[in-house]
Design a protein that fits this description.
The structure is a homodimer. Helices cover 33% and strands 23% of the residues of chain A. The first copy, chain A, is built from eight helices and ten strands.
């Protein structure tokens, strides 16, 4: 079966605005919350059997209300409680999937940040089809800016060759059984370091294929990002 | 003396629109060309003795007309012919500086991409003051997206630790005499690899300090970037 896992577990420590996590902020002239923009893209993809959404437990009721308010009544959407970080939220979703639909080597999952509302159907579908040939894939764009490494944060340590460098976005997709097996082999230190699933596969020597993202598929993390995203949807940038 | 070097030598092979290089495209409701937005920021900084602009020879007359049309009549602005790539354009500007104002170990230069119109006075001034303590500095922002290395372009090679990774922007600033000395030591292969001045300093083991950039200080390279930049200025995003 094919599952989506939209990760919205955060409580918004980096951008506290209107007293709510950033995935719930209104975006564009329609004032539709970011997470609703994102979920609409997933609902549009008919390949998914179920679309799981990991939300902090204090925001589950609120999210349910939002879905109703914005007529997102697709029966495939299932809310589950998020974990302390991205990977733990994904593991909670995996546990819910296996509990609801059983274990299978054929289960694949397309994970996505709720705060990337400009994901496209093309990216989602290419993630799904990439898994015909490998265990994991990652959506990326080539680096346009030079990438700089600075270990201490004040002086350049190295300037890696730009043509080999990419920016990782999401979706990140993989076979559920493989991820569980690899994650269980990680030490606690590795778990805290490897904040995304593709990092887990790469660290354990598994092949992760690249899927082409888009510069528009931005992650809304800061106030600047939020303004850019609003502008992309034709919102007012004057304040 | 303190010089600016605004690099606008390109002829726009990556984004050919309206038959002109991208630095000349109109931006925002005012329809002011990108390069004019950029130059206005530099003119605003009173520290500069001269503001050199490197432009492809076929576009020098056009640029002169633009400056007049947009009342950029500041006597500090000097147009010079660009070179085949970024570093060669900077070298052309350095040659013009030394020919016009003589050689000096005290000459510093703040280089900037013409297609980054959202540079701020704060960034420019921090570049200048960083050179009180070192030979070169680079304007960067912390990586928000995971950085991915892929040597072949289809499979992840490595996922470097994100907290050590930054995206390089411009301004990049340095002492002119040091850059000339280091650049003259490069092999032809190194010259073609090191497409930015800070890479030259790092490659030769010199300390390059980081200056804080901003996500807004984007480089307009593709049509998507151009749309985002227009939106940031309140232009029409509907097409």
């Amino acid at each position: 079966m094919i599952f989506a896992a939209v990760v919205a577990g955060g409580v918004g420590s980096r951008m506290n605005l209107f007293g709510m996590p950033k995935q719930f902020l209104p975006l564009g002239k329609s004032e539709k919350p970011i997470i609703i923009h994102t979920l609409e893209k997933f609902v549009f993809c008919k390949n998914f059997h179920y679309i799981y959404v990991g939300v902090h437990k204090e925001w589950i009721d609120y999210t349910e209300e939002l879905l109703k308010k914005h007529s997102l009544t697709d029966k495939r959407i299932i809310l589950v409680e998020g974990g302390k970080d991205r990977n733990l939220t994904i593991l909670n979703i995996i546990n819910a999937i296996e509990s609801n639909h059983g274990k299978s080597e054929e289960h694949i999952i397309v994970t996505h940040d709720a705060v990337r509302p400009f994901v496209t159907l093309r990216m989602i579908e290419e993630n799904i089809s990439a898994l015909d040939y490998c265990s994991a894939c990652d959506t990326v764009i080539p680096a346009v800016d030079t990438i700089i490494e600075s270990k201490e944060g004040n002086i350049i340590t190295s300037v890696p060759k730009r043509s080999s460098m990419y920016l990782g976005q999401t979706p990140q997709s993989f076979k559920i059984s493989q991820f569980k097996e690899l994650f269980s082999q990680l030490s606690d230190d590795e778990k805290s370091m490897l904040t995304d699933a593709c990092g887990v596969f790469t660290c354990k020597g598994k092949e992760v294929r690249l899927v082409r993202g888009d510069v528009f598929n931005m992650k809304i993390t800061t106030m600047s990002d939020y303004k850019i995203a609003g502008a992309l949807l034709g919102g007012d940038m004057s304040d």
